[in-house]
Design a protein that fits this description.
With 423 residues, the chain is an alpha+beta fold. The chain has a domain of 205 residues: Naphthalene 1,2-dioxygenase Alpha Subunit, Chain A, domain 1 (Alpha-Beta Complex), CATH 3.90.380.10. The chain contains ten helices and 18 strands. The strands form three sheets. It has an eight-stranded antiparallel sheet with strand order 1-12-18-17-16-15-14-13, sandwiched between helices. Strands 2-11-10-5-4-3-6 form a seven-stranded antiparallel sheet. A three-stranded antiparallel sheet has the order 7-8-9, with no helix packed on it. The chain is globular. The two termini are 41 Å apart. The N terminus is likely disordered. FE2/S2 (inorganic) cluster (FES) binds next to loops.
Length: 423
């Protein structure tokens, strides 16, 4: 298993996109899609589908890329990859978190390698062009007198921060966000993520198309047999919105009492719910016991289940009484995806005293490793000339189907806008 700390390497080999021809190529594949079934083979295997997905899906969606506690003070920066595209988040002098394309306005070098950094200004490592934290170009040595620095600021991207979560959108015009933000705040604010800290992170390289990774992450059909460790605490038999347990009403009543939002709610690209964990279980861990002595939630009762956020195209998050876990899948190539995992704990929790880092990571590291194998097996089988799209279980794979439905709808919308009919 390839699992390593830190952000993914920026050195990917083929990042060219040729979306004009990609659109023409993918349109018939979308037209051939059978409702209720997995996707036609080329959508999981080809460079054209990858190029299209980057432009039409990742280039137009709100993406959950991290936490404000990763940029704790002015001058903190966080460089991430959105697929093949480098972005840079910056905590500026006024306390605002801004986002930019991580590409110097001189000859295009990245300004920062992926990961967290701290600096009073952004200095390009190539020829020292220097930018203020708000993206303005401050200095460009040896450029002619008439050179206009004000024309060469960093190119911004959309950023929205909600209760400690950071979302970005690379489109010129971002989709509507406020409705989602208002609901998300209701559910996540009690977890006090703004005062949390990043306790651990990992990147897992999966040799599978990003949609296979996400379909796998959206269903628990496989969990009971393939994730025995997760099944000890997670109610793996549940389906849409994780409802269905006998204790669901009791849990819902307890959440009303605790003043915690729990009712499932969704928009077309997001879902929110708080659901009960297995009986007697306090958190998502190997034994159901808290992993961090200092809770994130200021509640006497620690049986508050898990608050689940799912964001299409690429992520989910579980917020429990003592920690928050983020799963974020970034496409790297047609059959390569990097799964970034992050664990947040209370800001004043001390490693070695209040939590053990390895224990904190154990359950999801095991689970993600199991999922890597499942997704890679899936990819190898999908590559077969014998593959034909198969039916989802309407009960057990409802959320995987929801994901591919959303993906196809978003693709059709994009093809419609660009005049490439999927028919
Ligand atoms: S590419 Fe950045 S200063 Fe030259
Ligand atoms: Fe899984």
């Amino acid at each position: 298993m390839l699992l390593h700390d830190g952000a993914a390497s920026a050195r990917n080999t083929d990042h060219t996109t040729n979306t004009g021809s990609a659109e023409a190529m993918v349109a018939p594949w979308f037209a051939a899609r059978r409702p209720g079934h997995t996707l036609p083979q080329p959508l999981y295997t080809t460079r054209a589908a990858f190029d299209f997905d980057m432009t039409a899906i990742f280039g137009t969606s709100w993406l959950l890329v991290g936490f404000t506690c990763e940029l704790p003070r002015p001058g903190s920066t966080l460089a991430e990859m959105v697929g093949p595209w480098p972005i840079l988040l910056v905590h500026d002098k006024s306390g605002t978190i801004r986002g930019f394309h991580n590409s110097c306005r001189h000859r295009g070098s990245i300004l920062c390698k992926p990961g967290q950094h701290q600096a009073p200004r952004l200095i390009c490592p190539y020829h020292n062009w220097t930018y203020d934290l708000d993206g303005r170009l401050l200095a460009a040595p040896r450029m002619p007198e008439e050179f206009d620095k004000s024309d060469h600021g960093l190119r911004p991207i959309h950023v929205r921060c909600v209760s400690g979560l950071i979302f970005v959108c690379l489109a010129d015009e971002a989709p509507e966000f406020d409705t989602f933000a208002a609901h998300l705040e209701d559910y996540i604010a009690p977890h006090a993520l703004e005062t949390g800290k990043l306790a651990a992170q990992s990147t897992l390289v999966e040799y599978a198309n990003w949609k296979l990774v996400m379909e796998n992450g959206r269903e628990c059909y496989h969990c009971i047999t393939r994730h025995p460790e997760l099944a000890a605490t997670f109610p793996v038999a549940m389906s849409r919105h994780f409802e269905g347990s006998n204790a669901a009403q009791t849990f819902a009543d307890a959440m009303v009492e605790a003043d915690l939002a729990a009712t499932p709610i969704e928009g077309d690209w997001w879902q929110l719910a708080r659901f009960g964990l297995n009986p007697g279980v306090e958190t998502l861990s190997m034994d159901g016991k808290p992993l961090v002595k200092k809770p994130m939630l200021a509640r006497d009762d620690t049986h508050v289940g898990s608050m689940r956020l799912a964001v299409d195209p690429h992520s989910f998050l579980h917020a429990t009484t003592d920690h928050v876990f983020l799963f974020n899948a970034m496409p790297v190539g047609p059959t390569e995806t990097h799964v970034h995992a992050k664990w947040i704990v209370r800001g004043d929790a001390v490693e070695g005293e209040d939590y053990d880092r390895d224990a904190l990571m154990e359950l999801w590291t095991i689970t993600n490793g199991q999922d890597k194998e499942l997704a890679e097996n899936n990819q190898t089988g999908v590559n077969s000339p014998g593959y034909t799209p198969g039916p989802y279980s309407p009960d057990a794979e409802m959320l995987a189907q929801r994901f591919t439905d959303w993906y196809c709808d978003k693709a059709a919308e994009y093809l419609g806008r660009t005049g490439t009919a999927a028919a």
